[in-house]
Write a structure and sequence with these properties.
With 149 residues, the chain is of the alpha+beta class. The protein has five helices and seven strands. A seven-stranded mixed β-sheet has the order 1-2-3-4-5-7-6, with helices on both faces. β6 and β7 form a beta hairpin. The longest helix has 17 residues. It is globular, with a radius of gyration of 14 Å. The chain starts with a strand and ends with a strand. The mean pLDDT is 91.
Amino acid sequence: MEIRVTRDTMSDIYFDALRIRNQVFVKEQGVPYELEVGNALEEASAVHFVLYDGGVAQGTVRLLPHLDEHSALIQRMAILKEGRNKGYGTLLLERLLEFSKTSHIDKLELHAQVSAKAFYHKYLFTEVGAIFEEAGIAHIQMERTGLAE
């Protein structure tokens, strides 16, 4: 297994991330493509992580740094259906946390689908605020601070 990281939106790694996100969010969950991809500036500003197993892309997540560069937003965590329950999400999040620490990011935020909040609790993310709807799906804002310590 290997996790590749890129900021290059013209790279094969990025295109693998888009394929996974399209399959999971657009085709499986019915999120409109335009909403899922977001805007080009966010895509180009983000760090994209893709997990490969046997050379095949199975999962992705992106990290969007805030302007202060000491905080960031975790977005677009997606694992292909055939790769679920194999620990890929754990590997991706652990790599992202490691990257965040070495990048001196002290605070991470995310909008977790409510069905995934227990996963993030295991990594010391806490809920902030009330449940809200995003792209027609119930979410909860979560955050973790103290990474750079």
